[in-house]
Specification:
alpha/beta, 16 helices, two-stranded antiparallel ribbon, 11-stranded mixed beta sheet, 15 strands, Amidase signature (AS) enzymes, about 15% strand, about 475 residues, about 40% helix, globular
């Protein structure tokens, strides 16, 4: 029964909970047992709140029995929280020795909303220091390993979240994305990974903005419908937010169930800064051809992204330098170099970087305006071996840049983007394909992603870890 349960999507599990064919206590126990058994090999979780999770599960069961249909949307669903999001009842280290014992006074708004929606927090998942790497290693905690091949990276910076979701150590995983940090590990671990629009999910209360709006929160999940559930539960501004996305015309879950209509779709397998391997380009081409067969108008396009990376990296560095770090010597070399770069920037340098970011975003959004959707590879390569990507501090920034040419431009533009697990490499590793929507265009993006998910189903494939 337990193995059958963990094969179910979050949407299916919620239905079983509502129909009282499954108890939240039973479901939570299944995930906690899997975490105890598999996490030592995966490095997905850095903290587990087993006792508190079981108490919350019992309370969820009591509420389901008492209140019938009048229930929060995620009631009884076990989820994980990335260790970049503040949690008032658990330490939040940001993957850094400099914050190893820090316990925030309040939950991040996204965590508070998940709790209000009835989700059961199982624990915190690992992240590289301050979320600065596309692989989850070299920081405070052991590396997050890929469930498809334990010698390979789970990606980053939401690598622990991806390892947990792919190995069924939670029903739904929270992540964050400042340059691809949800989509990268989703692609490497065979998951759906959604980066919502800038301002769609609040970064309150600790942060006024996430890296000048580059970073946002989002889900890693088994299905597009599950990602939409997360977005319905967490979307919307908090009072005083500097960015907010306009409310959708329909619930995101409804969008994921409907046909998208005929769309104009652009596609590319290279940007001005990088191209995909042949195997990944071929998988992207299959997705494009499938969309054409589904009735959409497809057209190859170009992606000029020159200049975006430097502004993004200056903004990230300045934000790291602004953290209350009293002992910089505790930082790992890549994070220390980023911190020092940020400390060397002037206020004028920072403002200039933000201005250049927005100028570059306007150019790319205008270039893509004739399309309803863009299709690209998520990454140029499959999962790298652990200990390789960015291991040398002297070249780490350049290696990271080369690994993410398709993801970071849409943090710059603020457009919603989703990675779908649509293919598998010859050596058995997942391949993700990225869909990018119009600004604030999550509903069309989710409708098209769900249609493509049905046409090229993935869920029957499971990683070998069990």
């Amino acid at each position: 029964m337990s193995e059958d349960l963990v094969q179910r999507s979050a949407t299916e599990l919620l239905q079983l909970l509502r129909e009282r064919q499954l108890s939240a206590v039973e479901l939570t126990r299944v995930y906690l047992e899997r975490i105890e058994r598999l996490n030592p090999r995966l490095g997905a979780y850095v903290l587990v709140r087993a006792e508190a999770a079981m108490v919350a599960a019992a309370e969820a069961d009591a509420r389901i029995a008492r209140d019938g249909d009048d229930l929060p949307p995620l009631l009884g669903l076990p989820v994980s929280i990335k260790d970049l999001a503040d949690t008032a009842d658990l330490p939040t280290s940001y993957g850094s020795r400099a914050f190893a014992d820090f316990v925030p006074e309040r939950d991040a708004e996204v965590v508070a909303r998940l709790k209000r929606a009835g989700a059961i927090v199982l624990g915190k998942t690992s992240t590289p220091e301050f979320g600065l790497r596309p692989t989850t290693e070299f920081g405070l905690h052991p590396p997050a390993r890929n469930p498809w091949d334990l010698a390979r990276s789970a990606g980053g910076s939401s690598g622990g979240a991806a390892a947990a979701a792919a190995a069924s150590l939670c029903a739904l995983a929270h992540g964050s994305d400042g340059g691809g940090s949800i989509r990268i590990p989703a692609s490497l671990c065979g998951l759906v990974g959604l980066k919502p629009s800038r301002g769609r999910i609040s970064v309150a209360p600790r942060h006024g903005e996430g890296w000048a709006g580059l970073s946002t929160q989002g889900p890693l999940s088994q299905t597009v419908a599950d990602a939409a559930l997360f977005l319905d539960a967490t979307a919307g501004p908090a009072l005083g937010d500097p960015y907010w996305a306009p409310p959708p015309d329909e619930p995101f879950s409804a969008a994921a169930r409907r046909a998208p209509g005929q769309l104009r779709i652009g596609w590319a397998t290279a940007t001005s800064e990088g191209a995909a391997d042949a195997e990944i380009a071929a998988a992207t081409q299959v997705a494009v051809e499938t969309l054409a067969r589904l009735g959409h108008a497809v057209e190859e396009t170009t992606l000029e992204t020159d200049g975006m990376w430097d502004s993004l990296w200056q903004i990230a560095a300045a934000n790291i330098a602004a953290l209350p770090i009293t002992t910089p010597d505790l930082l790992e070399p890549h994070a220390r170099a980023t911190y020092e770069r940020g400390r060397a920037l002037s206020a004028a340098d920072y403002v200039s970087a933000v201005m250049r970011m927005h100028q570059a975003a306007r150019r790319l959004v205008a270039h893509l305006d004739r399309f309803d959707l863009l299709v690209t590879p998520t990454l140029p390569h499959t999962a790298p071996p652990l200990g390789t990507l960015g291991a040398d501090p002297a070249t780490s920034a350049e290696e990271i840049h080369a690994f993410i040419p398709f993801t970071f431009p849409f943090n710059v533009t603020g457009q919603p983007a989703i990675s779908l697990p649509l293919a598998q490499s010859a050596d058995g590793l997942p391949i993700g394909v990225q869909l990018v929507g119009r600004p604030a265009g999550e509903t069309t993006l989710l409708a098209a992603a769900a249609q493509l998910e049905r046409a090229l189903p993935w869920r029957a494939r499971r990683p070998p870890i069990a």
